[in-house]
């Protein structure tokens, strides 16, 4: 089974005073985690992946068991699930437990953290937290943002627009914008493609 190491895992290791990380061929390290490993100058130790444990478990699955496992992976996701807890129905409905969501630092800014919560086809949804920062963005898809707390300024084509808690922002695909956050802002976003 693959092991996922993300930004928050490296933050926790650093906070605990750990100065090295052990990985193998079955370890997936996110790009943000790699950046933080370099920043904290953590030593990375490689070890050979052991398949003995996997073999001893017996890999004889019935067709029904394999289908159920695949259905669970497809409806519950893999990488996203490690940063929050949720309940899921077999039809895809999800209840994400907000108090379990762990945000990861984004490469776009010093004080920008986010977590994608839903990824269904080309539609994504998640949360972003920004503190005292300014971020330039070019949108690949249409995007809707709900400001859940704080305030921010959106700059586009030399004009500025203010948004505060309770406001909803719609940004068309291919827009070049700048978010400016003097103090803090939390957003819930949904991206959706155009036809």
From TrEMBL:
Gene3D superfamilies listed in its UniProt record: Jelly Rolls (2.60.120.10)
InterPro entries with a match to the protein in the record: EutQ (IPR010424), RmlC-like_jellyroll (IPR014710), RmlC_Cupin_sf (IPR011051)
Name of this protein: Cupin domain-containing protein
């Amino acid at each position: 089974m693959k092991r996922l190491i993300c930004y928050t895992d490296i933050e926790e290791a650093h906070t605990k005073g750990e100065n090295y990380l052990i990985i193998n061929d079955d370890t997936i390290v996110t790009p943000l985690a790699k950046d933080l490993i370099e920043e904290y100058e953590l030593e990375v130790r490689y070890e050979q992946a052991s398949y003995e444990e996997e073999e001893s478990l017996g890999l004889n699955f019935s067709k029904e068991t394999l289908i159920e496992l695949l259905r669970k992976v497809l409806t519950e996701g893999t990488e996203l699930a490690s940063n929050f807890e949720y309940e899921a129905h077999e039809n895809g409905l999800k209840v994400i437990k907000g108090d379990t969501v762990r945000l990861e630092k984004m490469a776009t800014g010093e004080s920008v953290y986010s977590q994608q919560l839903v990824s269904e086809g080309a539609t994504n949804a998640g949360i972003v937290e920004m503190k005292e920062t300014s971020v330039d963005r070019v949108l690949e898809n249409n995007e809707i943002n709900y400001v859940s707390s704080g305030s921010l300024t959106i700059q586009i084509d030399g004009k500025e627009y203010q948004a505060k808690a309770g406001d909803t922002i719609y940004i068309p695909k291919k827009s070049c914008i700048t978010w400016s956050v003097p103090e803090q802002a939390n957003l819930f976003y949904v991206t959706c493609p155009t036809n």
